[in-house]
Structure formats: C-alpha cells, structure tokens
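#help-structures
NK: newbie question, is this the right format to request a structure? protein is DUF2961 domain-containing protein
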Amino acid sequence: MLAETPGIRANDLWIRATWDGHERPDVDCPLGAFFGNELGVNAIGVLSHGTRADGVSYNYFPMPFWRGAKVELVNKSAETLRIARWDIRCMTEEASLSRYPEGRAGYYRSSSYRESEATRGADAVIGRIEGKGHMVAAQVTALARKPGIVSCEGDVRVFIDGIATPQVESDGSESYVCYGWGFPTPPETNPSSGYDGLPDNPWSMVRLCAGDCYPFREKLVFGIESGDYNNQYLRHSGILFYYGVNSPGMLLTDELDVGDRGSEEAHGYAAIGGRGSYTLESGYEDGTRRLLKDLGRETEGYSEFTVAIDPRNVGVRLRRRSDQITGRQRARVFVDGERVESRSWYFADRNPYKRWLEDEFEIPSRYTAGKTDITVRLVFEQEGENRAWNEFYYWIYSLV
C-alpha cells in the first residue's frame, strides 16, 4: 500500500482491514503507526514500511486473503481530511495461491492499539496477541512530562507462550532498535529499525522483526518499562504487527510438580544420584517484585518421569522451572530410552539475585508422534561452574 497524506495529524485517520469476512478487523490502527511513523515529526522507514522523504508512505507487507478483503479509512477527527494519493497493489490469483496456500499462511494483523498512557510501577504492555503466528514489527512511542530529558532507559521485555522468563529483553529502549546512548539525534533509520522525534523526548521507535525469531503458538506479550526499574513517569503508546490465526498451536497436556510426593508418584518420578531437595524463594526476571516459594530437587546423575501427551502431536515442548544461581545447566534428553540426538538441553545464563528461570526444550515429532505418553530421562552433563541439574516444576505441551 502507498499513501500521500500531507497535513493529517497523528491518530486522526485510522486504517481498518478485514480479511475473508472476519467478524473483527484484522488490522485496526492509526495510519501513522501502520506506516511505521507514529509521531510523524521526521520521515523514517524500514524495508517493510515507513515514510519517504517526498512524503509518500508505504507498507509492503504481504497481506494474503482467500475469499475477500475490505480496507477502510476511518476519520476520527471533526475535520474533513483529504488524501492526495492512495494505491493498493494486488497479486494475481494464481501467484497468490501458489505463494500463500490457504491453511499454510497466516493473516496480516495488528494488536489492539495502545493509546498513550502511563503505567505506574509496572511494564507498559504495548501489545497482547493470542493464537498462533509470528510477530513481524513493533512500534513504540514514549512521552515524558517535560522535554529535554533522557526518557528511553526502559527495557523491552517479550514473553512468548506464557513463559515467566522473558525470551527477549533489551538494555534500554534504544538498544531494542539497534542504537546506543539514547535518542539524542533523530531521525535515524536503517533497513530494519529506526526512530523519530525530538532529542530524547518524545520519541518513537520501529523495528522490523520478520527476520528475527518471534514465533508464538499460544500468545505473545510485549512490554516496556519506564526508567531503570519502572521509576519514571512515561506515557507509552504503540502497536504490534504479526501474521497469525486464532487457533492455538500447542496444548498443555501434563504437569509435574517436583517435590510434591503425590505428583512425583503419579508420574513415576525418580532422581538417581540426587543431591537432595531444597526450598527456594525468589523472583523472576520479569520486571515485577513478586516472589515465589517452591520445593525442588537437584541431581548429579539423572531424573526420569512419565508424562501424558496428545497423540496428534507434531512434537512436544518441555518447560522447566529451575534455579539459575549457577549458569550453564546442561542435560542429555532421552525419550522412551532413545536419545534426542540433535541437541542437549542447555541454558547458559545465570542470575544469583532473581533466581527463578523458566526455559524450554522441544522434542521432535519422530520421538513422540502417535503416542499418548512418553518417559523422559534427563542426564546431567558437567558444563562450566554448574555442579548439578536442578528442577522444581515441569509443564508438558503437545505441539499441534
């Protein structure tokens, strides 16, 4: 899509796109955010979407549909708005069907637009997505109480599929879009990221994520903190763009509470070469101050347990809660006596302060397809300073 909209203020004009007669619009956002330029102070853009120096805005993301498309422009101001130019480019039906076969491609969608507001003492949630898909772009805009202050210190945190440890965490907002030391000299732009605004406040950043690893099978939550530890007043707005479908791509089929006698017996849990059990009360690296207390075990040998899975699975995901007081936890994974040869379960990081960690291991379908349960054995491997494998809780997801 191409558009030329001179003189139209941010958020006055919105775009709505509905594919294949869906009840709700798949895309519903301000036109500036749709074109990667929410503030509109300067012309910035990335490969996928942006605004050129001549004032023409573009969005080149493919937007597949199979039965029909409805694209609307919604005037949310009290004035008459005029668009100098608007183009929509379509592929031929044959080319579209061969490139985006139905059932094998997601719909191009936006999260619900977050209006500019402050969130006190917690991360500002820019977007929540449910279903199955892949995030491809993020737009975040921030405004502090007064101009001329450094207002981009907050970290971006992305949580995928309900995991408590963020899979993505930046070192400040500017680091998320590949710049350092604040936003003092806008505009800046490169093929995958850019930012607009006035020096440090207000600012707006855009990142193209199509080449990054943001797949989700159940949900995705994208947040950003205000200051060093949510100690600064910032008004955040923004939106996420993704390809997705409504149905989830994984099912929770079992849980094992290590340290709970009933749960251990129900799953045939055994720890050989164990160093015993211990209780930990600590927090996650999630930007909150919540504490969790749990009983778990550690072993220098191996642990084993049997869990239920969906026979329709196309793989199984194991999620573990563990203590990351020491790093480089590694274990060999066996399923029904057969080693998963492609890789070990390995997590390199450590945090002796916020010690709770949730990490995951995916078992390929060749070990799990058609089965209603599997027996998993995790054999500790020495790596670095770590002296044992520890485990407090397991969630078992069948990928579908």
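mod (FA): yep, format's fine, and the tokens are attached above. The chain has two domains: 2-245, 250-399.
NK: thank you!
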